[in-house]
Amino acid sequence: MGKKSVIPFGPQHPVLPEPIHLDLVVEDEVVEEAIPNIGFIHRGLEGLAEKKDFNEMVYVAERTCGICSFGHGMGYCEAVEKLMNVEVPERAKYLRTIWMEFSRMHSHLLWLGLTADAFGFESLFYECWRIREWVLDIMEKTTGGRIIFSVNQVGGVHRDLDEDQIRFMKGELDRIERDLKNCEKTLFEDATVQKRTRGIGVLSKQQIHDLGAVGPFARASGLKYDMRMTGYEAYGNLDFEPVISDEGDCYARILVRTKEIYQSIRLIRQALDQMPAGELSVPVKGMPKGEAMVRVEQPRGEAVYYVNGENTRFLNRFRIRTPTFANLPGLCQMLQGANYADVGILVVSIDPCISCTER
Amino acid sequence: MGIMTFRNTMLANLFKKPVTTKYPAEPIDYPEGSRGHIEIEIEKCISCMLCAKNCPSGAITVDRKEGSWEINRMDCIQCGYCTMKCPKKCLHIVPGYTAPDGVKQVDRFVRPPETMKPAAKPAAAPKPAEEKKPEAAQKAADAVKTEETKQN
Amino acid sequence: MTVIEPVQKYEDIPAGDLLVTVMRKRQAEFRLVQICCAVVNNQYEVIYSFADDESYELTNIRVMVGLNETIPSICDSYPYANYYENEMSEMFGLKIEMIDGDYHGKFYRIEATEPFLSKKAKEERAVEAEEIRKAAEEAANMPAPEKDAPDPASKPEIKVIKKEGGGE
Questions:
Q1: ipTM computed for the complex
Q2: Domain assignment present for C146
Q3: What is d(CA A77, CA B128) in angstroms, rounded to the nearest whole number?
Q4: What pTM value is reported for the model?
């Protein structure tokens, strides 16, 4: 009968991209319970909605998180557009879809690098982030920023893609696909990767449903749920199926996210071919009044945006429910009974984006 | 299961040149369209104060009487909203980020006196238009004064 | 690819029906999406959202709660709702009882208490609390009830029936 001790994990830890604190109750190298605490990066951004004009609030909403920033800007704009009954032109919808898929690619490549770093494979970490640099170069050429894009506005977008940029994008997409195929053999078949990830952190489909998990974390256990199937923005005109796997362990999550990168490349190629010519934005008249709720598929899962306005320039309430907040109970369930050496991998496998969670 | 599946890439990387650049020894080549900092054509400015009212971080200060336009370089978040709101289109966002520094820099531009309306007092001496020059003493004095007024 | 058109519904229910409605959603295998709180007209407006994973349908249940009232926790039906409820009670000061895993104000490690509740709402809440306390005092000072009416606070008498006759 061993003695129980409480070990603090975080807020600073090499595997964590952002600070979170977990109190691990450990007995003889086996974790019994994990109690999370957040608040290290809380900036009260939802309170700023009552003090800033609803047009300026786009820039604040984008800066909620560095990795998922385009999704937050797009979700906020969609929620306010639904509230004010504004119809965005077709070209703007396609442009938003293309930039959202690039955002998804760069987020998944970042996660692949962090996972490789979590089990000590630093060369693979460098390769994945080198591929991510090509994606960030595309973003800088087309939107002006590498991480924070600032191209969304309520009513559309305010930057366009011309012929040179589209040709550049297609060339770079071929290069990204070739480089990722070189890494694929290591990610899927290498002995060290298999030993560290197979059979670790298994959650069945019923458990995932009972815990309310979303995103690739849930799709890796067989739950077929992807908000892009509802056809918001230009997704209704594109052809794809959600990527799922049946095993539910950390290896399945690597598989699902890598296949989603290939799926994003295919979606961008389809969208670039189908994009119509047209205006970029429509003027917005009046003040927001009423309430609206919109759900968007971020790289980490389903995010919910709720806005409530009372006919003034300032919104009464703006709330984001981020996917990591919904995946936290899944993390605590996985950590029960896990080996202490696997805690790093398990925490990274839900793709924690804590600055979104705390806003 | 493969053993050492990464060896091809590793060997190839040994003989290629590094992907990273030696910044700041080598200057960086920003693509056009990249957002870096704001520049103003002060002759066209009419001091309508729309840019100052709409700036999300409050980095721009406009004084209508003196005809001055100031921007706090460190507060600017490079969103470009002021360039969209300006009615005379005299604001532009150009590549080249603000260098890190120990004090907050404030850049001040004053409209040339011939473009101001003739309602100014005739006894006041006209101010010459100041150019942006990296004079440390002047900048520090300006920065301290403006920072103090901002904090109050 | 088949595009699924999601349906969104809003329902308003009184605070007393909350637990039954949530239990019905649990029976129908809905997933709890989020719980959101806002301050509208000096009342808390709490919205519970439930989604169906096959039809992508979203149901929003709205409950209006006074500034000094307490609502029960739904952790019996949805065990993972405790994070949302802890966040709401810390940020807005909404009183929720019987949370399974109550952090007592320590979930967010920040110094401010109830940062999203505006000063005006805090004053209104203090004024209402004062009124409730005065009303409770007046009720306690009412004249004593009549003698032959049974006192509701005392336990009922237990009558012992003695068994007669020989038995083991």
A1: 0.85
A2: no
A3: 45
A4: 0.85
